[in-house]
Automatic annotation (TrEMBL):
Pfam families: ApeI-like. It comes from Chitinophaga hostae. The lineage of its organism: Bacteria, Pseudomonadati, Bacteroidota, Chitinophagia, Chitinophagales. InterPro entries: ApeI-like, HotDog_dom_sf. SUPFAM superfamilies: Thioesterase/thiol ester dehydrase-isomerase (SSF54637). Residues 13-98 form the ApeI dehydratase-like domain. This is 3-hydroxyacyl-ACP dehydratase.
Length: 119
């Protein structure tokens, strides 16, 4: 949904139970005209969708968020100043769903932390 337009994956590595990608944000994407003009900020819903898409790519199936136990937005992402973001998604199959821990960060700056369950 967002991959290939809002962001592109520049690097990816995967091992059992974890996938790490670096994404490059498209600062010219129309969403930033409304969020916010002259001060672009990646919307939280886009961060969450990115986690969902990275998980789907790793587990090779569509998933739906069932429960967000923790969703912390710690710093804003300005796609002009911070076009590259590292996304790490750790996942474990549990009770017919996926238990997930994820972070969006770059170097020592963490933008978002997430813990939850996907079906």
């Amino acid at each position: 949904m967002l991959a290939g337009n809002f962001y592109t994956v520049t690097t990816q590595s995967q091992e059992p139970g974890q996938v790490s990608v670096t994404i490059e944000l498209n600062a010219a994407h129309p969403i930033f005209q409304g969020h916010f003009p002259e001060q672009p900020v990646v919307p939280g819903v886009c961060m969450m969708q990115t986690i969902t898409e990275v998980l789907e790519s790793a587990v090779k199936q569509k998933v739906t968020l069932k429960k967000a136990g923790q969703m912390k937005f710690l710093n804003m992402i300005d796609p002009v100043k911070q076009p590259l973001v590292d996304v790490t998604v750790s996942y474990k199959e549990e009770d017919g769903g996926w238990k997930v821990n994820a972070t969006l960060k770059r170097e020592d700056k963490t933008f978002m932390k997430f813990q939850g369950i996907f079906n």
